[in-house]
Structure formats: structure tokens, C-alpha cells
Fold this protein.
Amino acid sequence: MVMSVLEEMRIRSLGVIDDAVVELSPGFTAVTGETGAGKTMVVTSLGLLLGGRADAALVRIGAKNAVVEGRISVPDGASAAVRAEEAGAELDDGTLLISRTVSAEGRSRAHLGGRSVPVGLLAELADDLVAVHGQTDQQGLLKLSRQRQALDRYAGDAVAVPLAKYAGAYRRLRAVSTELDQITTRARERAQEADMLRFGLDEIAAVEPRAGEDAELAAEAERLGHAEALASAATAAHAALVGNPEDPEGIDATTLVAGAHRALEAVRSHDAALGALAGRIGEIGILLGDVAGELAGYADDLDADPLRLSAVEERRAALTALMRKYGEHGEGTAAVLTYAEQGAARLLELDGDDDRIGELTAERDALRAELGGLAQALTDARTEAAERFAAAVTAELASLAMPHARVSFEIRQTEDPEGVEVGGRPVSYGPAGADEVELLLAPHSGAPPRPIAKGASGGELSRVMLAVEVVFAGTDPVPTYLFDEVDAGVGGKAAVEIGRRLARLAKKAQVVVVTHLPQVAAFADRQLLVEKTSDGSVTRSGVKVLEGEERIRELSRMLAGQEDSETARAHAEELLATARADA
């Protein structure tokens, strides 16, 4: 099967590295060099390419920015290729180019296939491309949560399926419990709110306002307050239009217009223009008659009753009081009616709390029972997977110079009266179930199993982590594995076995190892030397491929600290011969 391969990295102005090109082989690549030469910068560079956190302190002193560029071959149809193309990246003959720039101010930019992308996208691709393991990862393996995650990863769908159902029920239970707590703990505040709403609704119901009533009453009050002046003006206007019966000699508008119309009517047939004017005057006469009639009716209908004015003002005062308490700015009685509608709905909600409490309590109890069943299913699946996982890791440890070591898992629950029912007893639970998973190690025959956090030395922990990763490689492989001094605390025969096991892993995937151990480096298909030179006050590091005599000299240095030691050279040649024979 064609796998993705990290082919090359170029590193510029990162830490002690001025400018270096790291050429990697498809198989096993060992990165070596003296302490402080910058081997860790190789790991850091790959971390940046894979979306790791940017730090301005990584930028070489005096440089504006640090740049890491990588070239990865990705087969067509691989998930990494699909994600990259969805983001608009272009692949060049199956090769994906990734770059990451970190400025001296700490700003970071990422490019994928020639396109600027969020750094988070690089982290998503990393899950499909590379598994990085360093000394911090070894310490992480000491945490119970990481041990449970490792077991769940190994178990696959047997745990993932019930865990997904459990997680959904767990989130719903949290939401239901939170709402139930809010209702019960705020019962007093909600009762006070209900009383205030009832009081307001009763006040509004007592007045019974109508929409727009405030504007209608304001207009009526204005009319009633000036009733005498309005009546006098209407009477005078009526007299001006149709005359005053008490003054027969008076001149009125209707009579004058009628006279003008008669004068023109007599001659309109002689001139069309004058005829049109006669028609218009006739229309004026009709309009004057209509207006005069309405003025007469207005004066007759005008109510100057002071009792009605008093009633209107009293009604307006009641509405104003409601609008001041329950209405918004300038919205009148419509706002009061809106408040009443919303308040009634809220009151129904508050009055329904008892029913809601009953519903939520029933749902909570049902969810707790469901969680108990799902938690038991998780425990059963983890228990079954733990036996297989432990057996596989134990078998790998035998290949890593720990032939009598035994690995096992302890899966337990903690009793909690407020927990969920699992296995007939209430236990505490969390978002991943009710299980506490702990990895145990018995390093030799007769030794009792102890938590690896307490019973494993640094070298043993390194080998346990490597064994775990090798087991994962057989069940959930990734194309590239990067180990940063995974052989820390190991030497002698154990170091040879680690080198041999890494070489076997490299037959299925690309393996890159940063190491101090010549026994491990000797098994590599390619060995890279990170070397530094001193140029005044500036130190520059570069990376070169070691072959033939150069590789023997570097292995001799790693063995004895002396490149020209005959004994060390002989040992180095022997290590290389052993590694080649094993291949």
C-alpha cells in the first residue's frame, strides 16, 4: 500500500539553525549530533509544520522571522489529500508543499499547496500524517486520562460506538440537571416575579385599555376643552356662506357665487372658454352648499358637556398611569397591551414550573438509568480490549529486551451515592464513562504489577511507550512516526533491541528518530548529522547526510566521544554489520 512520506524539510532562522535542509528517507531515518547542536529543532520544525504553537523565542536572534518548509508525498485519494484540496491547495505530482512562518513578534502564517490557510488546518492534517512522540509524551502516558484514551483508541468501534451514545446522553443529562437546578434554586425569585406579573395584569385588566385609545381621547379632550370657540367659529363661517336669517340685507358667499353663475350662463353658448368658467363657478356653488351643510351639522352636534370632559380626562389619567408603568417610550396603549400579552405567557410558564419540575425529574432519572447501561457497555468493551491490548504490548516488550515484563490494565469505578448505577452500585461518572483506567507494569518475574507512574524507570517507560505505538501501528497506522529521544534512559542490549524494533516498524511506515544512542542509529536506513560551527559570536547549525566513513566516525563519537578511536570504530562497524544482517 502506498503511504504518505515526509520527503524533505527546509529550516531557516529557527533556534540555532541558520539554514538547513533535512532530507528524509521512506524508511528509518536517525537524527544525531552533539548536545546543543539543534537536533530538537528538527522536531520543533516538524511540529510547526503540523500546526504546533508558534513562539517568537524560536526565531533566531537578529532574524525577522523563522521559516519551515516541508514536502510530503501524498497518494491520490488519501484523506490528507482530500482535505488539502477542499481547502484550495494544489498538489504537484502527488506532492504537498507546507510552509510555516513565525515572525520575531510572534505572528504566524501557514501556507498549504501555495494557498494561505488557517494554522488549525495543518493540525487537522497532522492527525492523518504523523504521530509525534517525545519525552513529554512519555510523561503524558503517566496520566490516567491518557491511558484510558490509549485503550479506547486500540478498542476502536467497540468503544467508540457506545462512547458516542454515552456522550450524547451525558450532555443531555447535564443540560436537564442544570435547568432543574435553576428552577428549584430560584423558586423564590420566580414566585416574586409571578406575583409582580399578576399585580400588573390585574391593573391592566381593571382599566381595559384599547389599542390607540390614548390618541382618540387626547383628540376628544382637545375638542371638548374648546367647544365654545369651535361652535362660535362654525356659526360665523356658516353665516358667511349662506347668510344670517336675522340680517336679510346681508351679503353671503352663496348668493354672490350664484349671481356670478347666472351672469355667465346667459352667454356661455357664445364662447367655449367662458362656458368652461361658468361650469367651474357652478361647481364652486355646489361645494359651498356642501360645506355650509356640514358646518351647520358640526355646530349642532358639538358636545360642550363638562361632565363628558371630566370623564375623558379621568380616563386619560388612568391610561397614562398604565403607560408609565408598563409601556415603552411613546408607544401608547399598544405597548401596554403587548406587555399584558407577554406577561400572561410568562405567567403561564412560571405557573407551570411544578409540571416542568416533574417532567425534568423524570427525564433526569431516565437519562441516569440510560447512562448506567451505556457505562456498563463501555466497561465491558474496555475490559475485553484491555486483555488484547495488554497481551500485544507485553509481546512487544519481549522484543525490547524486557522478556519477563508483563503489562496489564486495571479498570475500576469509584463509589458515589450521587452517581449512576453500574454493576448494581452507584459510581461516579464523567464525560467518558465511569471507568478509571490504569496501566500496570510488572517489569520482571515475581514483581507485582504496579502503576507505570510508580513502578517504571525512565528506560522502561520509554520502551512501554514504544511498544504501545508499535501495537497501534498494527491496528491504526499513520504514515510517519517521529520519536524524540524515545530511547532516553536506555542502553546496552535494550538499546539494540529498540533499534531493531524501530527498523521493523519502518518496514510499514516512515520512522524518524532523534537519538543519542549509536545502537539505535546503526539500524537506520539513513543517518542525518546536525552539526554546529562557531563563527565568532554566532552559532550556525546544518544538517548533512552521513554515508560510509562519515557515518562510522559519527557512530564512533556517539560510542566513545572520539571519532578516531580504533576500538570505537571497530564497535561502530560491528553495530552496522549487525543491523544490516538483521535487515
